[in-house]
Each structure stands twice: as structure tokens, then as C-alpha cells.
């Protein structure tokens, strides 16, 4: 409501559509064909937005080349309404929502691919493959360039995943859970001092584990196929731990960027939640591409987002001004011209002065007044009016 308020709102929203028009569009907005929806929902729970989802992510991958390190993690789109695949994640601020598995560039935070979690039984896992391995391979399936490093947490990391990536000449660096996932389970039984680390190297399979005691009752095991030496970089931190700490936050940082400039609106329909999530994804991906180019570091993200929104709506606003000219109020026409047409454009000539053949009374004057004239109003009424109840206006200020 405040977006269209005369006190708190801006002219940007008023120039595009009314509040009722906006509410109507958000209420009836759909992203699929309702006639074939039933058949598609029987095969895909995400069918209501699948076509839009795939198209947006395909464009994201086509317009960016991933760097040397990518991060795999999850994002939660906040939602508490009815949805078959709504999940609960205790360590997320929103707690409830739609979980999205995502891979981002660890350096620039650009989102390269994303897969929605559609609930239990929605993934047909091959025999001997766990869910974390399956999701990771699907996310990085189009990023299989030799030498690229995949960084992920212990939900995704496993020994079979490391071997599959090595077969594609890629590397894996990630924390791994204790028994039974550790390649060398006996390493857990070692008595280590605080901040002390130990490494196990398998030079045949090229899979290595660095095990560290970070707290009296907490250990962190990092599985890596990138590091083959046990090197301390900073005090008690090993090279493998330092690399993991520097690369693990790609998806979380991208999620924070989306939250800082979120387009989310209150809704009870989960397709709209996904739509708002895609808007956030596209907007931040566009900013990352723009800021990574040479000579574009002078503009901050807020200015870029504002300019992008203005460029997207300008064609519609100009079309509205030219097509619906006779149905808009003077204030709105003046606003459209000021914001989108510009004062530098050619000024349309004023219409010829209209008058009546006979002198008539001003329709606003009191009945006791004897004024009569031929001048009429150039607005919508076209009735006779006296100088006392009318004003002169120049060609520049005339609201076309």
C-alpha cells in the first residue's frame, strides 16, 4: 500500500499501473498451461514453474563462464503455506520454506545452476549412489572442465563422489562426516591435542583426509583431492582447511545478497515464492556480470538495480503514454512525460483555441454574475469558462 501512497510512495510505481492493477496481476499470474497441468503434475511436482525455471537457469549458464572453484550448498526460500515439498531447516533464519540446491562461483558468487528439492521419493537414485553425490553430480554436470575444484559441506562430500570427480579430472574439497564415511575410520580414535591436525594420504587413489581437533569435543575432517602435502599456512591451520574456509561460503554469500535486495511479496502460493526467488537470482547475477567488467566499478548495486528496473519498464511506460493518452489524468500524463519522455524531446504543438459561436455564461460563476464569453475549457468538459475560473498555461508546461 505504501508503494502508491502520496506520502511514502514514489512516482515510479504510479507511472506504471494502479495499486488495484498490481494486485490483480499478482493474483492471476500463472507460469504454465492449465489445460495440461494435471498430466504434468503426475510426473513432476515442480511442473507449475518448471518451464520458467529451466529457461532462467539456462540463460544464466549461457552468459557466464565459471571460475576455477565452485561451491555447492543449499538455499531456503521462505514459505509457510501449503506445499508438498516444504521443508524445515533449524539453522536457517526462516526455518520453513522450499529448499534449493545450488552451485555458485566461489570467487564472484555467480549462481550457475540450481535444483529444487521436491520431497522424499522425488529422486530415483541409482544403486549405490547417495543423495548428496547424485545432487552434486547433477549440479556440476555442465561444469566438467579439467582442473576445476568443487567445494561442499559434509552433506554432499563422500569418497565415491571424490573418485567420480577425479575420473573427470576435477577436484573435491569438503568436510566429511565421521564413521562410516571416512576412508580411514581409525583416524577418529587418535588422541589429538587442541588445534592439532593429522593427515592420511592415499597416493594411489589420490584421496586425502586432514583431521583436526578444533574444540575439546569437536573434530573437523576435510577430504581433499587437491592437496597432496601436509602444510601449515597460518599458525595451526593447514592448507586444506584454509582453502575450504575460503571457498565454502559461495552459496551462503549469494543467499545474503538475495536477502539484502529481495523482491519477495507476501503470498500463499508457492509458485510465486519460486518466481520471486528467480527474480532475486537474475537481479544479482546481472549485477555480478556488470561489476566484473572493466570500467564499471563506479556504480554501486543499488544504483545498478534502479537503472535496470527503469530500463525494463520504460518501453511499457512510453507505450502507455502514447496509446492511452486520452484516458489518463493530467497529473499522470505530466508524470510520464517527465520521467520517461524527457524535457529534451520535441514538444507537441498546442491544440487550437476552441470557442463557441455565441457568448455564453461561465458554468462555474454564480447566477448573479453577468459574465459571458466564447472561451471554453480545453480539458475533458469543453464548457465555457471565465478568466476568473481558468488559468493560462505555456506550451512547455502543457500536459500532453
UniProtKB/TrEMBL annotation:
InterPro entries: PGBD. It holds the Pfam family DDE_Tnp_1_7. Residues 3-287 form the PiggyBac transposable element-derived protein domain. This is PiggyBac transposable element-derived protein domain-containing protein. It comes from the Eukaryota. It comes from Meganyctiphanes norvegica (Northern krill).
Amino acid at each position: 500500500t505504501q508503494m502508491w501512497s502520496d506520502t511514502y510512495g514514489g512516482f515510479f510505481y504510479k507511472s506504471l499501473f494502479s495499486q488495484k492493477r498490481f494486485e490483480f496481476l499478482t493474483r492471476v499470474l500463472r507460469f504454465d498451461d492449465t489445460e495440461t497441468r494435471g498430466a504434468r503434475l503426475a510426473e513432476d511436482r515442480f511442473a507449475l514453474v518448471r518451464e520458467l525455471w529451466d529457461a532462467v537457469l539456462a540463460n544464466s549458464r549461457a552468459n557466464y563462464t565459471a571460475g576455477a572453484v565452485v561451491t555447492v550448498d543449499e538455499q531456503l526460500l521462505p514459505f509457510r503455506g501449503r506445499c508438498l515439498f516444504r521443508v524445515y531447516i533449524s539453522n536457517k533464519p526462516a526455518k520453513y520454506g522450499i529448499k534449493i540446491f545450488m552451485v555458485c562461483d566461489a570467487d564472484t558468487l555467480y549462481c550457475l545452476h540450481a535444483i529444487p528439492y521436491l520431497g522424499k521419493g522425488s529422486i530415483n537414485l541409482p544403486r549405490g549412489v547417495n543423495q548428496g553425490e547424485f545432487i552434486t553430480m547433477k549440479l556440476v554436470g555442465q561444469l566438467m572442465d579439467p582442473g576445476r575444484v568443487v567445494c561442499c559441506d559434509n552433506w554432499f562430500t563422500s569418497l565415491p563422489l571424490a573418485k567420480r570427480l577425479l575420473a573427470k579430472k576435477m577436484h573435491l574439497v569438503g568436510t566429511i562426516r565421521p564413521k562410516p564415511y571416512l576412508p580411514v575410520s581409525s583416524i577418529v580414535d587418535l588422541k589429538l591435542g587442541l588445534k592439532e591436525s593429522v593427515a592420511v594420504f592415499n597416493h594411489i587413489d589420490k584421496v586425502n583426509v586432514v583431521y583436526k581437533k578444533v574444540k575439546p569435543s569437536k573434530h573437523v575432517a576435510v577430504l581433499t583431492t587437491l592437496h597432496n602435502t601436509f602444510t601449515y599456512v597460518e599458525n595451526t591451520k593447514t592448507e586444506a582447511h584454509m582453502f575450504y574456509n575460503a571457498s565454502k561460503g559461495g552459496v551462503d554469500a549469494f543467499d545474503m545478497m538475495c536477502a539484502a535486495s529481495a523482491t519477495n511479496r507476501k503470498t500463499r502460493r508457492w509458485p510465486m515464492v519460486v518466481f520471486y526467488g528467480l527474480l532475486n537470482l537474475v537481479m544479482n547475477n546481472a549485477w555480478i556480470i556488470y561489476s566484473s567488467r572493466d570500467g564499471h566499478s563506479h556504480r554501486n548495486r543499488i544504483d545498478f538495480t534502479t537503472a535496470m528496473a527503469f530500463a525494463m519498464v520504460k518501453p511499457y511506460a512510453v507505450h502507455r503514454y502514447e496509446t492511452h493518452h486520452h484516458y489518463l489524468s493530467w497529473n499522470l500524463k505530466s508524470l510520464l512525460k517527465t520521467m520517461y519522455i524527457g524535457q529534451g524531446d520535441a514538444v507537441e504543438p498546442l491544440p487550437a483555441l476552441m470557442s463557441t459561436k455565441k457568448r455564453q455564461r461561465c458554468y462555474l460563476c454564480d447566477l448573479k454574475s453577468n459574465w459571458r464569453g466564447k472561451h471554453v475549457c480545453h480539458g475533458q468538459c469543453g464548457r465555457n469558462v471565465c478568466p476568473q475560473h481558468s488559468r493560462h498555461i505555456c506550451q512547455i508546461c502543457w500536459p500532453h
